[in-house]
Design a protein that fits this description.
Elements (H helix, E strand, L loop, with lengths): L2 E4 L5 H14 L7 H13 L4 E8 L2 E13 L4 E11 L8 H15 L5 E3 L6 H9 L15 H7 L5 E4 L5 E2 L35 E4 L1
Parallel strand pairs: 4-5
Antiparallel strand pairs: 1-2, 2-3, 3-4, 6-7, 6-8
Bound molecules: fe (iii) ion (FE).
Fe (iii) ion binds next to loops.
Length: 211
């Protein structure tokens, strides 16, 4: 019999695989297993942020859904976002999604949450029908997002390029420096202090971060 329980750290790999399935079918997202695993462990390690529910039968995880916790100042209550609803392809149309939603709603109700909000693709009619059948109704609000990831990427030492002040040659860690046997993927910080510019032989200290 399928049973719904709260996910623990040992479930992260299987949940991450389910999320990859979900994101590969959603037009706005590209799967990234490292990012998915990090996200899942952030929730599991910080139970105040949310809870992941999985549906399991005979040790096999068939599907998952999660609640993320926040506050509504309008309601003066805790509220939840329902995210990442996914059922493994072999287990679809068997009531697993229904079990997961019912469980998440029941937990939220029991713990005093005032509302559950979810987003679904505007052209995914079956999903919309499913959520309506579970008592959700469409809101007139529209979704706005601002990604905050781009700026941090350029500051990440593992991907940041450095420029030679003398000749303008760029050290790109994605390429390394084959003339000096520096492998691709080597951050500038990891290059030896005796290394010098392959073009003008200026020293490593003559390089500045390039942005
Ligand atoms: Fe140079």
């Amino acid at each position: 019999m399928p049973e719904v329980r709260t996910a623990v750290a040992g479930d992260i790999a299987e949940c991450s695989a389910l999320l990859e399935l979900l994101f590969s079918q959603e037009k706005e997202f590209t799967p990234d297993s490292l990012a998915q695993s990090k996200g899942l462990s952030l929730i599991i390690e910080n139970p105040d942020t949310g809870r992941i529910f999985i549906c399991e039968s005979d040790g096999e995880i068939q599907g998952m859904v999660l609640l993320l916790f926040t506050v509504s100042t309008f309601l003066g209550k805790k509220v939840a976002l329902l995210e990442d609803m996914v059922v493994a392809p072999a287990w679809r149309s068997k009531g697993i999604g229904s079990l997961l939603i019912d469980h998440a709603v029941e937990v939220a109700r029991r713990e005093g949450f005032g509302r559950i909000t979810l987003l679904t693709d505007s052209d995914n009619e079956p999903a919309q029908k499913f959520y309506r059948s579970k008592g959700f109704s469409q809101s007139g609000m529209i979704v706005f997002r601002k990604a905050l990831g781009t700026e941090t990427t350029t500051c990440n030492s593992e991907t940041a390029a450095w420029m030679c002040k003398e000749c303008g040659w760029l050290y790109d860690p994605k390429e390394g420096d084959s003339d000096n046997n520096i492998k691709s993927g080597t951050p500038f910080e990891a290059v030896s202090s005796g290394w010098s510019c392959p073009v003008c032989f200026a020293s490593k200290s003559d390089f500045d971060p390039f942005s």
